[in-house]
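DNA-binding response regulator (Paenibacillus glycanilyticus), 338 aa
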Amino acid sequence: MFQVLVAEDEIWIRKMIVDIIETTEGFQVVGEARNGQEAWDMLQELWPTLVVTDIMMPQRDGLWLVEQIAEKKLPMETIIISGYDKFQYAQQAMKYKVSEYLLKPVKEQELREAMQRLYARLEDNDKWHLYLLKVQSFLEELASKDQPDLRQHLHQLLHSVFALRETYPAYYTALLRLLYTKWTERLGKGMAGTSQPFQSGEELTEEQIVARFDELLNHSLQTQSSDSYQLDKKVIREACAYLEQHYRKNISLTEMAERCHMSVSHFCNVFKRQTGMTLINYINKVRMEKVKELLLEPDLKIYDIADLVGYTTMSYFNRIFKETEGVSPNEFRKARGI
């Protein structure tokens, strides 16, 4: 199943795109963003295989987003949906290796066909996502308290990346840079002024690279105190209380990170450590508990229940419910004689 992130500021268009993707075999939506910055924050935690984005959005636009993906050499395919039939936009999209360029109003069949054309490339990208997930997994482990095998796990991760040096040098460099950047983001002000390694033209031996990351690990272990751990625990407990009150809203990673006075990367790691799940999965869990209560009310229609708890598309709502409960909402009711 290929995972898709949708970035579109107009909710009714985003709802339509999500519905098309959710009802296309082999694809599922893992996140929705309202602008390019929010999409960029989300994709660095969700690692989708496909990004579908509008061009014109507030804060950061779709071209900025695909530029970041191209510059970081992330193994993701991109589809732009634009309301502007202008050559310069298409030219920029080609520069950033955009996979498909569709015009608004997007036609259902056009979007489905565009996704199907990408199938072979998406399958090829799957192996690179394993490396992205390894990086993410290590960063989540790093956020945990009392991890005695961190150095061993770091060295295992690095040696798996070293294996790509000769055959896939671009991905090799991109993965090392990604690990270093996300790690130093987590450390925040303590790493101010730190030079960025793995720039083009910089030749480091494997031993030098290991030494750089060992130094970073030492810094992390020195700064991770019991007091900061307890503070993080308190902040995430308050965040969860907020989510349980406002689960109907379309709450973003960026919004929650700002509320908790953390960077998006640090918030995601700390939230996962404290709750055992991502922000999106936690919101879905809270919503599903409420859905099960509402399904016991026979006068309520299922589409009204979906709307009441914050879902804008029935296909997405039905998939999440079945993944969580193992049955459809209708089957859930029937089993209880409703």
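Residues 119-142 form the longest helix (24 residues). The chain has a mean pLDDT of 87. ok done for today
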